[in-house]
Amino acid sequence: MTSSKAAVGKPLRARKEAPAAEPTHEAGELAMGELAGLLGYALKRAQLRVFEDFLHCVAPVQLTPAQFSVLLLLDANPGRNQTEIATTLGILRPNFVAMLDALEGRGLCVRTRSPNDRRSHILMLTDKGRATLARAKKLVETQHEARLVELIGDDNRTALLAMLAKIAREF
Amino acid sequence: MTSSKAAVGKPLRARKEAPAAEPTHEAGELAMGELAGLLGYALKRAQLRVFEDFLHCVAPVQLTPAQFSVLLLLDANPGRNQTEIATTLGILRPNFVAMLDALEGRGLCVRTRSPNDRRSHILMLTDKGRATLARAKKLVETQHEARLVELIGDDNRTALLAMLAKIAREF
DNA sequence: TATTGTTATACTCTATAACTATA
DNA sequence: TATAGTTATAGAGTATAACAATA
């Protein structure tokens, strides 16, 4: 149980005899230079790491982050069609077809033609889909997100989430 | 000039007559459900948006985020070889070849065989590469990162960067 | 034998056009 | 004609194996 209110990035300035500003890189280590201050770079690196950990934590139920997001959205919005679900997740309709084929093939959800508009496919989670989602959610909460809170603290996680959401929405 | 110290995500609870908890979604809007609390999802969405804006801001010098990161690293570490630069950026050596071909083809950097180890290609920015990098850096600072600071504030940007770096490093 | 840069290759994501069946 | 789901396809990004030159 590490401190759950860990400070985020204490630079720990002041050592014995730092020559100037940047820490000397002894011909073996590369200097990150201004890369360290680039938000996009940090975002990408963190995102890759988080997805990697997600994949590992949710491995028992064999769901990718994208698949998990689809199941979550189907659960919160039963009876919607493919276009609505896909566009909400930023997935293009053509690319959503194969994704759904996989999920439906595993019996996690079903497509049914809408009686109102026979062009649309109404999407619903199956019981197995709901059970799988529940198992995945527990894994995400107790392993994935829990480890993250352990690393940066609960308040920081909330602040981080808020900033990311704001950027995605308003930037 | 919007407030540069903008609050990040004030939920603004308490309206006139909210039925229960979640805001009612009137058959036209989808409920994000627990997706809103998933850090990986927020990370991905924010990263996509930030890269999109980066691409737009740096369009005058025609550099992708990945290419910009290579030039930055070459500038901070002149005389390194391909393997060192690539692995530092998390790029696999085979995939770095075409990237370098493009940059070298535009005259932004050069490969020269090392006299010590004739297997290695020493990488160096050209004058044109340094000039292009300088132009790109100015665009990133004055447009891209500046807009981000305008959106979330300078302190929040610093905190965000620190958390993302910590996650990439230690998660 | 091990390493550097390279080629070839494959698999995933993403993006666009166009088809079909419905409306 | 317009829309929903679909197919085909092309382009990035990413991953592994293997080869030639060099150590």
Automatic annotation (TrEMBL), chains A, B:
Residue ranges of every copy of the HTH marR-type domain listed in the record: 32-169
InterPro entries documented for this protein: HTH_MarR-typ, MarR/SlyA-like, WH-like_DNA-bd_sf, WH_DNA-bd_sf
Disordered, as annotated region: 1-25
UniProt cross-references to Pfam families, sorted A to Z: MarR
Coiled coil: none
Origin: domain of life: Bacteria
Alphabetized Gene3D superfamilies for the sequence: Winged helix-like DNA-binding domain superfamily/Winged helix DNA-binding domain (1.10.10.10)
Bias type Basic and acidic residues, positions: 14-25
PANTHER family xrefs: MARR FAMILY REGULATORY PROTEIN, TRANSCRIPTIONAL REGULATOR, MARR FAMILY
Identification of the protein by name: MarR family winged helix-turn-helix transcriptional regulator
